[in-house]
């Protein structure tokens, strides 16, 4: 029988993780998206309990103390964490997709070695900046801050199980679908 897999999708900010994850979940009813906790403010259009659970710093720290996160990290002055119960409850009935940063992904693998790590990479560094500007959710200063992190994240790709280039969106989604299909049979 095919097993349910925990898939981690990582990659630098602006590479297209959110876009790929959303379409993947829409098209594959077996795949459920995990919802992370964050202390950052919601962006316009984001809904609590849909994109993230938006919580304050004290609540976040309590959850860290109570070992409530499968992994957590801090970036851009905000904290992000994957709620353990949420993920393992979902894994009973579905494949679960985590959309988290590279260090988070590596922490997940340490805590749950069956996790499948996929890194989404851009066709070029210039293209990722173009996408972030086009998305229009961050100031130029914040985009530049995020650009500095891109190289750091890309350098860790060898630690991931799979690397998928997000040039043509449909091709990237198909590749991720194939990886999940294959991993479910192992
Ligand atoms: P991330 O979640 O990794 O930060 P997003 O999914 O928000 O990235 O994508 C950043 C921007 O790039 C969005 O405007 C999105 O529409 C666009 N985008 C995503 N994938 C592609 C692609 N394959 N080709 C061109 N633009 C893309
Ligand atoms: P954003 O603020 O753009 O939604 O996310 C910023 C970064 O936080 C992205 O790289 C995203 O992948 C990462 N992130 C989101 N949720 C989590 C999480 O639960 N854990 C970790 N480690 N990173 C996360």
Explained architecture:
The model has no long low-confidence stretch (mean pLDDT 94). The chain is globular. The longest helix has 16 residues, at 169-184. A 5-stranded parallel beta sheet has the order 2-7-1-8-9, with helices on both faces. It is built from 7 helices and 9 strands. Helix 1 (17-27) packs across helix 7 (169-184). It has helices at residues 17-27, 57-65, 84-91, 102-111, 125-135, 140-154, 169-184; strands spanning 6-10, 31-33, 36-38, 52-54, 69-75, 78-83, 95-99, 116-121, 162-165. By secondary structure, it is α/β, with parallel strands linked by helices. The chain binds adenosine-5'-diphosphate and guanosine-5'-monophosphate. The site of guanosine-5'-monophosphate (5GP) has 13 residues, from strand 5 and strand 6.
Short overview:
With 186 residues, the chain is of the alpha/beta class. The protein has helices at residues 17-27, 57-65, 84-91, 102-111, 125-135, 140-154, 169-184; strands spanning 6-10, 31-33, 36-38, 52-54, 69-75, 78-83, 95-99, 116-121, 162-165.
């Amino acid at each position: 029988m095919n097993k349910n897999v925990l898939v981690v999708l990582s990659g630098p900010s602006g590479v297209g993780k959110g876009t790929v994850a959303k379409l993947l979940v829409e098209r594959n009813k077996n795949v459920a998206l995990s919802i992370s906790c964050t202390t950052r403010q919601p962006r316009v259009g984001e809904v609590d309990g849909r994109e993230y659970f938006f919580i304050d710093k004290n609540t976040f720290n309590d959850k860290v103390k109570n070992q409530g996160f499968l992994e957590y990290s801090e970036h851009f002055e905000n904290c992000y964490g994957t709620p353990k119960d949420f993920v393992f409850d979902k894994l009973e009935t579905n494949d679960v997709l985590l959309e988290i940063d590279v260090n988070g992904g590596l922490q997940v693998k340490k805590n749950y070695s069956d996790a499948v790590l996929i890194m989404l990479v851009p066709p070029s560094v210039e293209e990722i900046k173009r996408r972030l500007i086009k998305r229009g959710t961050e100031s130029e200063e914040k985009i530049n801050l995020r650009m500095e992190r891109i190289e750091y994240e890309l350098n860790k790709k060898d630690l991931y199980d799979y690397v998928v280039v997000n040039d043509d969106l449909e091709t990237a989604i198909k590749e991720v679908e194939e990886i999940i299909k294959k991993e479910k049979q192992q």
